[in-house]
């Protein structure tokens, strides 16, 4: 659970704390609190160098006073102990004030803008502050079995603190979003974006752990259970249950023959040694904390229970009524008079699998509030962390989305360097460039790892925002999703996957000897060019696999039930790109790839379906279906020509109505009460300009006496 520390680059900026010859571990709790209090006071000094030295001392405490530890377990124990102590003493609030000062430091920003090349030295103070805050957020966020009631209470207080508008009237996450937009607008090119994005991701992950989040966890467990039922996660054997080892290989060969223009020769032409039906296996699980229970056996058949929307039942009944009795009854799904018995049985089966989502309930509620504002009254909006965050992000939401996608594009392995692109390497490049082969290799690994972490943080952050806003209100989700679509998120993700995805999944851009806390406990081995080239012993990079799954889930969320966006997948020729991603033998990743292929099969034509029958079979076996879904044949009514622009415009109109009704408190609508009492209106005080009394008589002459009043016209108008 502490592996993220190494991704934050926390093995740098280490500083030991002098305690007058005494070890930190030997101090009593009172002495430790007194020492932290002295550090807290010292943070307020005006001397920048002294303040940085104190911040490094706090970072050393948060990292677990490793100089006094003999094992990695000891480091992690003391890190957790010290983090809760630091939070209890108010260190986080003090760090937040220092972070705000650094953000508003115009001198540092203007100096960085003028510099031709920015390096690690330009963001030393920011990186130390962000490292401490990241350690505190991540450590407090993770709940452990032996936590005392005091620690549990501190965790809940910290969640409330981060999710509330306590920092200048806005949540802490909004301050970090401001750093992102400031960096992407080139106003603060020295900001360490990797650390900012990691802290932003973990912050939202912490304060969004509410009752709604448990719904997400239950849904995730359901997915894992079903995916595990298809292909046990202990041995990821892809999503195949056929006689052939890889059912997609023959389809790939046909794809290359049928669509040569869709395939990048640089991708399929390379022979990857990992593309030999190697199965991705997860890392070994930790020892069980409780006796293992008996394995649950699931019945054979489709892994998911089929769902039916009320709209699907209505459409089925409309078609049946037109066919058998010649007229329709609108939205009536109960009247079955005149229909034959098989239709009765079909409707009964459909109703047994009827599923009403939270989104449908929220949309119906919003329609009622829009149609009957006086009857329904004012809506009571619960001040959840997601609601507070959305309200804060609303004025600049498009800027936040565009900034995140800019960073994702800059960090993508398929992106080419451009002179006008943003520099995301400011917090990884040293002041002096390497002069030896070993230094160059190490820097190359650091740069690639740096980009991978940025992709991981952004993909996880966007997915979290979409999930939590969808639970809070569907139109909040739709607003973020539409901004993602308008900012070209769909082609960006497809461009990300248009690479040798097996090489990306198996990349070894890490140096195990430098991972924290290993690097501070064990003796540092000699790094050679051969050891760096060999990499670690892991066959696959779980960081990159995590990013790929997140991006696929984002693509699924913004295209689901949206015909115009599904057509974008078709127009951008996503089918061959997604099929190449099926080569990664990991069940969850393949599941989301198959979902994306399923929603566009009706648009790909009969020849494509005929040439990819094993892919079609995999979709049928592994993806949830609607009982009357004609996805495999293309004769569904939704496959007919569609006014895609009108669909997006109608959705945008609904979103704007929602935002105006709920958040625009100064709206002047036709339902605003009107004062009809003459005496009350004449008795109201009207603020006039100071010089109005000088020209009052002229105004009367011009506006009243010289203007003839057409009394007959007024009477007729009445």
Automatic annotation (TrEMBL):
Gene Ontology cellular component annotations, sorted alphabetically: cytosol
Segments of this protein annotated with the region Disordered: 235-292
Domain annotation Far11/STRP C-terminal: ranges: 340-696
Source organism, top-level taxon: Eukaryota
Bias-annotated ranges (Basic and acidic residues): 242-252
Biological process terms in GO annotation: cytoskeleton organization
Signal peptide residue numbers: none
Sequence ranges of Acidic residues compositional bias: 253-272
Family membership noted in the UniProt record: Belongs to the STRIP family.
UniProt-listed PANTHER family: PROTEIN REQUIRED FOR HYPHAL ANASTOMOSIS HAM-2, STRIATIN-INTERACTING PROTEIN 2
The protein's name: Striatin interacting protein 2
